[in-house]
Amino acid sequence: MAEFVLYSYFRSSASFRVRIALNLKGIPYEYRAVHLLNNGGEQHQSTYQDLNPSKQVPTLIHKGKVIGQSVAIIEYLEEINPEPALFPKDVVTRAQIRQINEIINSGTQPFVNLNVLQELEKRAGFDQEKKNAWAHHFNVVGLEAAEKVLNKTAGKYAVGDKVTAADCFIVPHTFTAKRFNVDVSKFPTVDRVAKACLELSEFKKAAPDQQPDYPGPGV
């Protein structure tokens, strides 16, 4: 087994964040796909639940140690491999990065997560159109907040002129928003930062359509 193993799903924004961070750190890893829809969702299989009781992706295995949740994984990678730094030493800058991350991680993404959309269908009878409208709304709410913060923090990237952990969150969020027909160009600072990041190979290689479980366009 490789030193680093990542359980991932091509379209998972949380997995996307970790793939970016691994690439930025120059850490090679073995990719193991967990399809969140096939066979009722492979994340519900007992073998995977033993690794990740939350039944979510991503999950990282490093030297036999298992770590779930993208925030915990990225902070772990920073601690074991500090360079290049995704959280600079300046305490204010670090707080700004974490603020942006949490606008997305806890303030937006949980509302548009697959299990929430499935529960809305199950309990409230949401059809696909209503689920898409729900996800569109909360993606816009998150982008509005991120835009206001980035207007104060951004240089070339989300916080200043060097890539940080905040960019690992901003880019996947724009991909998710576009899936739900959000016009990201209405958030010009977020859009500019995301485009700047996507000029970098580490971000390109982490993109959903570059993953081994990507099924093709239109999926």
Features:
219 residues, 10 helices, globular
Q: Which helices and strands occur, and which strands form pairs?
A:
Layout: E1 4-8, H1 13-24, E2 30-33, H2 46-51, E3 59-62, E4 65-68, H3 70-80, H4 91-105, H5 109-112, H6 114-124, H7 128-153, H8 165-179, H9 188-197, H10 201-206
Parallel strand pairs: 1-2
Antiparallel strand pairs: 1-3, 3-4
Q: How would you summarize what this structure contains?
A:
This protein has 219 residues and is α+β, with helices and mostly antiparallel strands. It has helices at 13-24, 46-51, 70-80, 91-105, 109-112, 114-124, 128-153, 165-179, 188-197, 201-206, and strands spanning 4-8, 30-33, 59-62, 65-68. The protein is built from ten helices and four strands; from the N terminus they run βαβαββαααααααα.
Estimate the mean pLDDT confidence: 97
Q: Characterize the largest beta sheet: strand count, sense, and whether it forms a barrel.
A: 4 strands, mixed
| Helical coverage, percent range | 40-55%
**Cα shape:** globular
Number of strands: 4
From the N-terminal CA to the C-terminal CA, the straight-line distance is 30 Å
The arrangement of helices and strands along the chain is EHEHEEHHHHHHHH
Q: What amount of the residues lies in strands?
A: 5-15%
Sequence of strands across the biggest β-sheet: 2-1-3-4
Structural class: alpha+beta
> What are the low-pLDDT stretches, counting only 5+ consecutive residues below 50?
none
How many individual helices?
Answer: 10
Radius of gyration: 17 Å
